[in-house]
Amino acid sequence: MIEANNPSLTSWVKVPENTDFPIQNLPFGIIKSNSVSARAASRIGDHALDLVALSDLGYLEGLEFAKSDFDQAKLNPMMKHGKQALRKLRNRLSELLSGKDESLKNATDHHTKVLIPIEEIENELPVEIGDYTDFYSSIEHATNVGTMFRDPDNALLPNWKYIPVGYHGRASSIILSETPIKRPKGQQKPDPEKPPVFGPCKLLDFELEMAFITFDGKPLGESISTKEADEYIFGMVLFNDWSARDIQKWEYVPLGPFLAKNFASSVSAWIVTLDALESFRTAGPKQEPEVFPYLKYEGDKNIDINLEVAIQPENAEETTVCHSNYKHMYWNQNQQLAHHSVNGCNIKAGDMYASGTISGPTKDSYGSMLELSWKGTQPIKLNDGSERKFIQDHDTVIMRGNCEKNGVRIGFGEVRTKVLPTND
Ligand code: MN
Question: Ligand 1 centroid to 93 CA: how many Å?
Fold first, then answer.
């Protein structure tokens, strides 16, 4: 077991009960405040742990990192050191915060220098995202979409159980939680008998997804096996892949999603390391027909992450509209990365790979309004009495995720996005 994951560890830093960020989590992110510039940090409970200050005070000696790796507005320079170096860093943070190494615990005058109350900081987008790929790896989601738009008896396309289907998305419009979005405009064709129209999207939707973030991979022309994949994955975030269903329907033939998807995707602020998630591995579904040898894998590669989505209308309480779980994925991350690189495509530190909408087997576990309202035919009732088929202006969509096992609960915080009207 990775030492920092030990469920019996506790910290001398006071941590609220049921926090997403106990000592077993120790995610990484970028913080700034009135007194400090943007920099790398970890988080414990309701405090950010300033890695620049920690390095300055000599607590990170003997590790591979220089202070300049942390004194950056993105995590990429830190991530260039790779998985093993990051694991040692996280283990060191764990020793310092548990008191196994008593130096920081005893240096009480250092506490306010390295631990910043979370209400005093702002997060920034944690990585410079070079490339973004979106998969389509939930069998329930792919089946629901195929049932709605094609043939209920042949909902999955013939390639789906052979290929972890995906497409290259747009990295520039991936935005941090709490950044509002504007309702996109575009072409739609609501009436099959009439010409297309132009205007604000009427069928704005969320997609409940998780994304993993990679380290630098191998040179162009080489591949990463399912066995090697873990070594190239840094961690994960919650990912809301905003979608304009009416724009999508008109534009996606023959080359796939374009303006219906690239106006925004929202991510949570703290990258939970794959190391921290190792304790929550679980078996994936049986894959039938048998997959190609390069997609075979050993061990449990799915991860048990409880997920939920809530909608909060303006000046009203939120309503949870979906409970799903990342463990339902048909294709796991190792297979996705092996497939992505099997042709020699190279990957880089900071690249983001989203799962595709994560739907579960039950109606309340569907990860998009498209499925929850079944194309708008079955509106969802909210606690304030209103109904939703899709997302309205001034709604806030909130996604949360956490894992729980052996008395340890680690989470992702949330990704929260308000939708503003189109400005004409
Ligand atoms: Mn998507």
Answer: 34
